[in-house]
Structures are given as structure tokens and as C-alpha cells.
Amino acid sequence: MTEPKFPADLRAEGMLWMGVTRSPHASAAIRGLDMRAARAIPGVHAVLSAADLPGYNFHGPRSIDQPVLAADVARYIGEPVVVVAAEHPALARAAAERVRVVWDPLRPLHDPDQSATAPPIHPDGNVLHTTTLAFGTEPATLADPASAESAGRKVISGEYVFDGVAARPAAPAVVIAVPNGERGIEIYVATVSPRGDREVVAQCLGLPVEKVHVIPTRVGGADTHREDVGLQVQAALLAMATNRPVKAVVPRDAPAHPGRPAAQLRYRHVVADDGSLVAVEADILLDGGAYASTTIDILDEACRLAVGPYRVPNVRISGRVVRTNNPPAGRVRGGGGALTCAAYEAQMDAAGTAVGLGGLEVRLRNLLRPGDLVPDAGDPLGKPAAAPVPIPDCLHEVLDTPMPNFPPGPDIREYPGTVGRTGELTRIRRGVGVALGMADLSNPTQLGEYATAVVLVSMTPDGAAATVACSAVETGSGLHDLIRVTVERTLGIAPEMVAIRAPEDPGSLPSSSAVTHPAWVHGSAVETAAKQVRSRLFQSLAEQIGIDGGLLKVVDGYLVSHDDVFHLPLEDAYRQCLPASRVVRGDGEFRMLAMPALTGTSDAASVAVGAVRAVVDVDTELGLVNVIQVAIAQDAGRVALQDRAEHRVASGAVAGAGFVLSEGSDLPFGWGEPSTMDAPEVVVAALLETAEEAKEEIGPDGLPQAAPPLGGMKPVGDLSVMATPAAVLAAIRDAVGDPPGGSPLRLPLRPDRAWWVLS
Q: Which of 86, 346, 419, 541 has the fewest CB atoms within 10 Å of its CB?
């Protein structure tokens, strides 16, 4: 495959289509299968169950508990039981419907609150994972109402409930499996983790790993867990049984896409009369659904980020993931931080009201500073935050962003609800909300991720050119553009002269296991290889001035020594050191084995921070909310691709607004899936390049030393997903006041949950 394509657009000669028999029950034992009627249909080539799987029937990113095909029991509605291969998709669906399953329905468990006492749905119980992060004095003691009142403190309690939301991918999930003789099986899929998928498929099919070839289609829209690897196994199983290509298509609305987990968060903040935070206590419960999927990672991230970018001397965070008979959850943009940010920011606003200072002032008095402790999974005493933490700069940028005009109009499409749902102008209330967010860059789930790369540099008639060999998968996110810019920054070779040779089979070398932040891991491996090329290529020039080749760098078209004494035009340097017959090779590897290599700090938590201001209009007669503008500023470390970074931040803001208001296809007009008129104006006020001056490449001994990868670049986009919901909620409260106490705040807001906005 030479050009990126959506898997749905792929065809293969003699291709069959996959159909799936799914469970209609949330919990039911399987007492028998009768597949004879389905097999008797002309044009049906295979009808297979778990008994036909030659390898291991289970998979999972953290806990190997999810079957490829349910064998003895089905644990959620929509779980696959039997797969069918037929000559037409309608025929495959009809055959799947003819499979007779003898069901013995069981009592389902849907309420995560009851999971600890309910009969186990897995042999190892319903509580999948627990975690506790704490430092300082026990917050429960400080939050005792009697002792808090006698000490002149306020206790702010809040409960926040988030619905589980099914994923609605931009395109259907599609896999094409093609048998290829002695080569084995080829699987074409939109994935960012081909190496990990390959290993799982091989294990489930009982094949040597070299016989499985997972080939990414290199298009946007795939994220870490969008394409369930079980779907790849099912398609490959049918392809091997029929010796023909098989295409599997899961529609957008099918219950097979892991979505955001349901969550319950209970908070208590203890605040002194002067507005300073004394303690934070939080309890987080996630509904992982029937199988573990990625909810353990989401919980751990939520617990690490539960306090937010604030200085708190006493912290206790406890979290649990439980299993239920709801569909499995999966990782979505923003992860656990999107859950906790909405909760702790609502707590900060409530604290500001309680002490009479306002939410913004309380935030300013408690901003996280370098060296302040933050919760950390690897250290029970917490870890100090690494510099920089430029929250004040981010706040200034969003607060200085010009406000949109009020009142809306004269075009009625600018009113909440747009055409046909326009209320009276006197009923519209403008609200403005501010929220701060924090992303954790010292994520322990990244440890062990690695990538290798090779960079070759030679002279062509058009000048110096580079070829990069790596397994970086371009999914439309700009990863290959980042690699070209990295080579340009390190070697001064123009991006159009950099060729990227991503192997057709990413399971071959160069290799990687990069999942969490592939740009970081792959980019750093390429950067290491390019630096090795630079050192080797210009070593003769370095020897002339008595320094090591590693102390030369490329700056604005010049080859420059570390002390800026030596300057040589880069074109002359290449002419002297790179004859037409010479090829210089550099090998690079980057492994996330320890955070010091990632953050440049010895024992600190590296964070990215940001601020969001949201402006909303609320129609208090119709109960509709229109998000007018979202302004965002964040610490980006170093921006390599400005346009790409801004687009990712803006798309995160739109997704964050939907997190609050517009999710759920079953809702009435104005509340369901967003239309083009629902998207707010997004202003990327600033992407602060805080790492430019902090980067240090020369150690005290005068030799090169390890620096933060890619010049200290930090991932962008997730922060806007995390903080935008909190800012939108704050803006709604600013417009119409807080909902009455006594009941938890449930998100996303639906008409039956936003009744308090009605006057």
C-alpha cells in the first residue's frame, strides 16, 4: 500500500464479508449453539465460534480478560459470539441472524455502586483495580465539620456523576484480512499500534508472530483503542478458514466501539478563610464495563490529576475500577483528566463563593509552583512539580482575549437553539467561565515504550538529502511532518529533501512499542539518529577547532559550535564534508525507562498546564445553551508544527464542549449530535514555548548530555479536552447560578438535568 486509504475504501479480489451474531443479553450463559441453518445458506463460506479459534481466546491491553468470541457466557449486550463469512454483507447479516444460541439469562449488574457486593461476573471478582495516593496530614481529620469550624475553615463537598458515553467514531471500524500463502496473514486496518496488534493476533490465531502482518492504512481518525484488536482476530480467523480475503465492518452506532467510562467522583475541599487550600480528599469510581480494556490507566491518570494545578499540603485520593455488565469502556481524548478537571474546578468555584473571594481569586492564591507536591503513583509522599509551570501566563493570555459581542444577532442563527427555536432576547443570559487544567507528562504507563530509527544522509544534485527509516505510523496527525521538521532542525536539511521510509510491515525493524505519545517516542528516536549523523558528518570540522563533533549544532543555516565561536555556512559545511560518494548513517533509539530522560529532572513530575475561558449564552425560557467562544492558552514546551498544534487544540475544545452539552444521539433537536452551527469560535490565545531557553545540551564536563526530547516539546490537544468542559460549566453557572444543592451534578447536561437554567 503506497497511498493512505480509509479501510472502508479497500477491496480485494474474491473478498468475503463478515457478519456477527451478538448477544441480546447483558448477562447470559451460553448453553448451546446451532449453526447448521446459517451454514446451509448458499453463498455462506464459514460460520465459526470460539471452539474454532486455534490459539488463545482472550486479549486486553492491561488485563487479558476479554474473549475474541464469547464461549460460555456473554457479559454485555452486543458481545460477539459467532462470526460468518459470506459473499455479500446482507447475506452475512442474514446468516448471522440464523445462528441459534441457547441462552440462559442471568441477573445483570449495571450499577457500579453495587459491584462490590453483587455476585462476581468474573472469577476474580468485580473490583478490578484500586489505588490510593496521599501525602500530608489525613484530610478526613481536617475535614471533620466540628474541627474545621473551630479552626476557621470551610469544608466544600461535591458529588459529580459522568454518564458512560458510547464512542461515535468518524467512520465505521473496518478490517480487511488477506491470506497470503507462505507469508501468512495480512491485516489492513487503521491503527497506531501495529506491533502490539500483531502480537495479539498471532497469539489468538496460534501463529508464529512472523506470519502475521498488520499493515496500517495511514489515515486519520484512528486512536489508540478505536479498532478493537478482537475484530482483527475475527476477520483473520475467517480469512484463514476460507482462504479468501474477508472484510469486517462495524457501523458507527454498533455497541462494539469502546466509549468513555461512567464515573462517580466525590470531593471534599478544606479551605481557610483567606482562601488557601488546606486539604483535598477525593474518591473516584469508574465503571469499566464487562472487561478491563483501558480503564485501569484512565483511573490512575484521574487520580494523579485529581487535585489539578493547585498547591495543596494535604491530599488523599482513592480510586476504584469495577466490572459491570455494561459495554467495555475505552480510552478517549482527555482520558481521566477530563473527568477530574470538571469536578475540581467546580469545587474551586464553590470554595470561592464560600469564603467570599470568588473562584478566580481562590485559584490565584493556590496556583501550583515548581517544587510544590503533586500526587504521584510512584511516590507515596508525592513528587515536586518540575519547572516550568506557567499558569499565570496562560491566564493572562485567555483573559486578554477580546470578548464576543453581546447581545447576539441580528442573525437569529446566533441565538441559542438557532432557527425555529429562538426565544426572546430578554431571556438570554451571557455567562463567562474560566478553568485551569493540568496534564501529567510523567505517565508511568509510558515507561517501557520505545522506538528505533535510522537516518541516512547523502549528497544529491539538489543538495543534501536524508532518508529516515522508522516504524512511525502516519494517521493524519502530522507525525511524519514532525519527523521532517526534526531532521531539519538537527541537520538543516529542508523538509522536502527528507524521505520517510516507513516499512510496509511495521513488525519488522526499525521497531517500536509507542502508543501513548508516538510523536514523542518516534520523534526522539529520529532526533537521536540525526544527532549521531551530525556528529559523524562534521567530525573533521570539529577536530580542526579542538572540540567533539557532538558540540556542533545547526542554527539559522549555519554550523555553530556550542560556545558560538565557530560559524560556518551550512552549505559550505556540507560541501566540505559530504562528497557525492559518501553516505553517513546514524542509528537512534529512544526508550521511556525513566522520567529523568524524558523531563530533564532527577526526581520531579513534569506537567503541562493550561487555561480556558468559555463564553456562553443561555436561553432561560427554552433551556438551551450556546457556547459562543472558547479561548485557550497552554504550555506547549516547544512547538514544532504551529498549524497542526493549533488545529489539535481547537478540535479538543470542540470535543470538550460536546462533553458537557451535546452527546447522545437519542436527544431532541438542539441537544443531540452537534451540527455545524453548534461549534463555538475557538481562539488559540497562546501556545507558550517554555522549553526554548530551558534546554541545555552541554554538561558541566563540556561534553554533550541528554536533553529533554524534541527540545522539550509537550503534547497538545488533551488539555483543551480536559479544561473546556469545566470552563463551559463555570460559564453556565455564571449566567444562571448554581443548581440547587443536595443532588449530584450529572454530565453531560441533558434537558432533564439542566432544568435549573429555566427561569
A: 419
- In this structure, which amino acid lies at residue 295? T
The answer to whether 721 and 602 have CB atoms below 8 angstroms apart is no
Q: Taking Cα atoms as reference points, which of 592, 600, 606 lies closest to residue 516?
A: 592
- Percent of the chain at pLDDT > 90 equals 47
Tell me what pLDDT residue 680 has: 81
CB atoms within 10 A of CB 246: 29
pLDDT of residue 668: 41
Burial group, residue 558, by CB count within 10 angstroms (0-12, 13-18, 19+): middle
Q: Which pTM was predicted?
A: 0.86
Nearest CA-CA partner of 29 in 94, 119, 117:
119
Q: Are 114 and 320 in contact (CB under 8 A)?
A: no
On whether the CB atoms of residues 464 and 574 are closer than 8 A, the answer is yes
Spatial contact of 287 and 326, defined as CB atoms under 8 Å apart: yes
Among 58-72, 167-181, 541-555, 628-642, the least confident range: 167-181
Report the candidate in 66, 121, 67, 74 with the shortest Cα–Cα distance to residue 102.
Answer: 74
Cell of 511: 521497531
Dist. CA 633–CA 621, nearest whole Å: 34
Task: Indicate if the pLDDT at residue 248 is higher than 50.
Answer: yes
Distances (CA, A) of 160 to 133, 157, 249, 712: 20, 10, 36, 35
The closest of 657, 725, 714, 721 to 334, measured between CA atoms, is 721
- Euclidean distance between the first and final Cα of the chain, in Å? 59
pLDDT at residue 410 in the model = 67
Within 8 A by CB and 6+ apart from 51, the residues are: 71
Mean pLDDT of the chain: 83
| Radius of gyration (C-alpha) of the chain in whole angstroms | 28
Q: Largest Cα–Cα distance in the chain?
A: 83
CA distance 185 to 213: 6
Question: 3-state DSSP call for residue 91?
Answer: helix
Higher pLDDT, 713 or 459: 459
Contacts of 327 (CB under 8 A, 6+ apart): 76, 77, 78, 164, 166, 255, 258, 259, 289, 290
Least confident of 141-155, 221-235, 520-534: 221-235
- Dist CA 661 CA 624 (whole Å): 10
375 and 133 Cβ atoms separated by less than 8 Å: yes
Secondary structure percentages of the chain, helix, strand, coil, to 5: 30, 30, 40
Q: What are the structural domains, with CATH classification, of the chain? A: 7-107+168-250 (3.90.1170.50), 112-166+259-365 (3.30.365.10), 386-442+602-757 (3.30.365.10), 448-593 (3.30.365.10)
Q: What is the mean pLDDT of residues 420-436?
A: 79
Weakest-pLDDT range from 16-30, 46-60, 296-310, 412-426: 412-426
Residue 186 sits at φ, ψ, to 5 deg, of -105, 135
pLDDT attached to residue 225:
44
Q: Is 688 exposed, middle or buried (0-12, 13-18, 19+ CB in 10 A)?
A: buried
**Residues near 759 by beta carbon (within 8 Å), at least 6 away in sequence:** 427, 620, 621, 736
**Mean pLDDT within 409-424:** 60
Residue 21 grid cell? 451474531
Closest CA to 95 of 137, 40, 133: 40
- Residue 677's Cβ-count burial label (10 Å; 0-12, 13-18, 19+) is exposed
pLDDT of residue 340: 94
User: Is the per-residue pLDDT at 66 higher than 90?
Assistant: yes
Q: Which residue has the cell 496521599?
A: 134
Q: Which residue has the cell 442573525?
A: 411
What DSSP designation does 538 have?
Answer: T
Q: Are 325 and 75 in contact (CB under 8 A)?
A: yes
Q: What is the pLDDT of residues 295-331, one digit of tens each?
A: 888 899 899 999 999 999 999 999 999 999 998 887 7
